[in-house]
Specification:
Blueprint (H helix, E strand, L loop, with lengths): L8 H16 L3 H8 L3 H8 L7 H11 L3 H4 L11 H9 L4 H17 L2
Helix pairs in contact: 2-3
Length: 114
């Protein structure tokens, strides 16, 4: 019988950081440069093989322009959000190009109701 193992908190955190990094269009190299860290540091974090200091978490959030709740998604249970709150918090994950697309979609929906 194969036992399915649950990812560790570090693995989930690393996966979240990697996904956000990719959404933001950063390579590991460019993120490492912005953080003034090595590419190996970013790689270890993304693979869940190294922990992070509070200062590193803050720096990553600043560079990726995301709140800490987003990188801890799946680790710390969150309170169910109302739809409006969910949409507002989700917007913090997107870069300006993504936000422009969302704005176009909103305008399309509004105009279709007229």
């Amino acid at each position: 019988m194969n036992k399915v193992t649950k990812p560790s908190a570090l693995q989930v955190l690393g996966k979240n950081i990697k996904n956000i990094r990719l959404l933001r269009g950063f390579s590991q190299e460019s993120l490492a440069c912005e953080l003034q860290k090595s590419v190996n540091f970013v790689s270890l974090i993304e693979r869940g093989e190294s922990g992070l200091s509070i200062n590193s978490i803050v720096d990553i959030c600043k560079v990726l322009e995301v709140d800490a709740n987003t990188i801890f998604d799946g680790i710390i249970p969150k309170v169910e959000l109302e739809t409006d709150d969910f949409i507002n918090q989700s917007l913090s994950m997107f870069n300006n190009n993504d936000k422009a697309m969302i704005l176009e979609l909103i305008n399309y929906i509004i105009n279709s109701k007229k």
